[in-house]
Design a protein that fits this description.
alpha/beta; globular; 6-stranded parallel beta sheet; 10 helices; 2 domains; 332 residues; 28% helix
Length: 332
């Protein structure tokens, strides 16, 4: 008899309300792969877009989900029993993903998770922290003492970017939408808080930098804040764009752009395989273990049976990091 597991397995695209956990065969494992019992799996906005069919290269049928934390139950002896975490732009898009009770991955794509994180905390970190790392370290090459503007600072990627920029020794300016969001910013991590509803980002940055401007800015919002972020940059500033959720089209004054020697950097973590992402997570692990960066402070956990509700919360812009907690197959 074929062993089965519960998973968010889709055969067509649709809205969150269409999502149901179903029984599917447990994945087969090749000799160079590991079987992971998934303990927790984060839901990202990109998972909602995946469900809705917004990734043209996605395959059907497939299991959804990019982020996970779990434990290796089959594979090389040195890995069996290891607590691991992971993410990848291929997971849940071009290959079966993490929103399931089990996951099979190449052994080379496994990253041991920080010892001081719960499974839910580790599962919440994948896309947000690998995106922040790619922006700040790989693309912008942030140095200690530089000023970094983080838009959407209380969101999942924003939280990760504030944590990581602070750990790198940067001065952080948080950009949030309004007073409610401003109250959620940790004042110990930032040198200033700007609000979009007050349109005061350039002024806040000038005050914090003595008029010099920021060296780096991060944007996952798109057109509504593009001009303000550019204005906040000093000469030679770098703007990292990793999403354009609120609008993809902008107007750019090329004279101002080249005269101030600005740089516009595009960040696309969807092209990272799970093995690519594991290499980033390996570099993040000591920062978590040493307490230099912290996981998202608000995690909202749901069983797979509540997947439709959990996905709807993410689609609605939940302030918490929403995580699925599958039951192990042996416990059903």
């Amino acid at each position: 008899m074929t062993a089965v597991m519960q998973a968010l397995h889709i055969t067509s695209h649709g809205p969150p309300v269409s999502l149901r956990a179903t029984d599917v065969p447990e994945p087969a494992r090749a000799p160079d792969q590991v079987r992971i019992a998934v303990e927790a799996a984060g839901i990202n906005p990109s998972d909602v877009l995946s469900l809705e069919g917004r990734f043209p290269h996605a395959v059907l049928p497939r299991i959804l989900g990019r982020d996970f934390a779990g434990r290796v139950v089959e594979g090389p002896a040195e890995l069996v029993g290891a607590a691991v975490w992971g993410t990848g732009g291929d997971l849940g898009i071009t290959r079966d993903g993490t929103h399931a009770e089990q996951l099979v991955l190449p052994a080379a794509a496994v990253s041991r998770r920080p010892s001081n994180l719960t499974p839910e905390q580790a599962a919440s970190a994948g896309v947000p922290f690998t995106t922040a790392w790619t922006c700040l370290v790989d693309a912008a090459h942030v140095q200690a003492g530089e000023t970094v503007v983080v838009s959407g600072a209380v969101g999942a990627v924003g939280w990760a970017a504030v944590e990581l920029a602070s750990a790198l020794g940067a001065r952080v300016i948080a950009l949030v939408k309004d007073a409610t969001q401003a109250a959620r910013v940790d004042p110990a991590r930032v040198a200033g808080v700007a609000r979009s509803d007050l349109a005061n980002l350039p002024a806040v940055v000038r005050e914090a930098t003595g008029g010099a401007g920021a060296q780096v800015a991060l944007s996952g919002v798109g057109s509504p804040i593009f001009a303000a972020l550019l204005e906040s940059l000093g000469p030679g500033g770098r703007l990292c764009v990793y999403s354009a959720a609120a609008g993809p089209e902008v107007t750019l004054n090329l004279f101002d752009f080249y005269r101030r020697r600005l740089a516009l950097l595009g960040i696309n973590t969807a092209i990272f395989t799970v093995a690519d992402s594991a290499r980033i997570l390996d570099q993040l692990r000591p920062l978590f273990d040493g307490g230099r960066v912290r996981p998202h402070p608000s995690i909202d956990s749901h069983p797979l049976s509540e997947a439709a509700r959990a996905y709807a919360l993410v689609a609605g812009g939940s302030a918490s990091k929403v995580v699925l907690v599958p039951r192990p197959a042996s416990g059903r």
